[in-house]
Design goal:
The protein has 198 residues and is mostly helical. It has nine helices and two strands; from the N terminus they run E-E-H-H-H-H-H-H-H-H-H. It has a two-stranded antiparallel sheet. Helix 3 runs antiparallel to helix 9. The longest helix has 21 residues. The chain is globular and about 50 Å long.
Length: 198
């Protein structure tokens, strides 16, 4: 074999602690486990870790907050919508939490990749592959409200700055936010998931 170049294919899968191998280019719902999602999201910091406190405010906490806001905004929403809200950033257990300005810089390919993974997650947990436009708008509205509360309480934004970027939250209880240890955040996310998936 001297003089020939051995072809090697780049690895495009990630091994999860559950033992699953998730193909990042063609994710199968069969390779997605809620424990892997909870574990990953509890260890991904919101705001690139630029938050106050002894612990990062993680994506698992953010997802639980968005689900709670959806429940307040639409009290008669069923469990599937609330589960979709809880899982709205679940893809970040693999791809991390890129801040919005970086997502814009990365471009459309990133969004396509994220949507492919979101679809597989939805199918795995018995949700429609995609949210309706109405559901998507409600979850996005709750997401922006959560971002406002996080920005002003944890990430050093003034209320004027936060209103400019995220709008002024109305019609929901103001949460008291603080980062918590990863194992607590993981347990919080799993507890919310189990309540919504029965």
């Amino acid at each position: 074999m001297s003089g020939t170049k051995r072809e090697t294919k780049a690895r495009a899968w990630q091994r999860m602690l559950s033992g699953r191998r998730l193909d990042l280019l063609d994710p199968s719902p069969l390779d997605i486990e809620i424990e892997d999602i909870a574990h990953g999201l509890a260890r991904v910091a919101r705001w690139n870790g630029q938050t106050k406190g002894n612990y990062a405010f993680c994506v698992a906490q953010h997802c639980a907050l968005v689900e709670r806001i959806v429940a307040e905004l639409k009290p008669k929403s069923g469990k599937p919508l609330r589960l979709a809200a809880l899982l709205h950033d679940a893809a970040e257990y693999v791809i991390g939490d890129l801040i919005s300005p970086f997502k814009v810089a990365v471009g459309l390919d990133y969004k396509t990749f994220e949507k492919t993974l979101e679809r597989a997650i939805h199918i795995r947990f018995g949700l429609p592959a995609y949210n309706t436009s109405e559901e998507q708008a409600l979850i996005k509205h709750a997401d922006r409200m959560a971002a406002y509360f996080e920005a002003t309480q944890l990430a050093g934004f003034t209320m004027i700055e936060a209103r400019k970027f995220f709008g002024q939250p109305r019609g929901v209880t103001v949460p008291k936010l603080d980062g918590i240890p990863a194992l607590e955040a993981q347990a919080l996310f799993l507890e919310r998931f189990r309540r919504l998936s029965v």
